[in-house]
Amino acid sequence: MAKVQEIVARALRLIQVQDARQPVKAVDMQTGIAALNSMCARWEANGLAIGWRPVSNPSDDMPCPVEAEQAIAYNLAITLAPEYGTEPPAVVVGTAARDLGDLRADVKAANPLTPDRGVIAHGYDTRTDRFY
Hints:
The protein has helices at 4-14, 26-45, 69-80, 90-110; strands at residues 120-121, 124-125, 130-131. Helix 1 (4-14) packs across helix 3 (69-80), helix 2 (26-45) packs across helix 3 and helix 3 crosses helix 4 (90-110). The model has no long low-confidence stretch (mean pLDDT 89). The longest helix has 21 residues, at 90-110. It has four helices and three strands. The protein is mainly alpha-helical. Strand 1 and strand 2 (124-125) form a beta hairpin.
């Protein structure tokens, strides 16, 4: 299980604003943690149940399954890029999309009876919980 600081540092390296040989500055770590909490809370609100709970300390364990860590790091890199005035490399964008798709499939497979919000099926709109 990774530490929060490892995921934030990785995300910053992926967008090439952090040297792997240097420690992450405190302000950059706090920016990363805020973005991490926001991004993962949004995923949870959208039905991507990874068991997220907010973190505040860089030395905290990541509150998610190990298999979610890469998707989180790569998507965090994309989330942070505008704050640092950079564009994430295409390989980062592609990996983020692929890993997030894999994570969604993992969550869906683990919870097959959970409705997929936003899907309209058989006259039932799962977004509004109403039949039409």
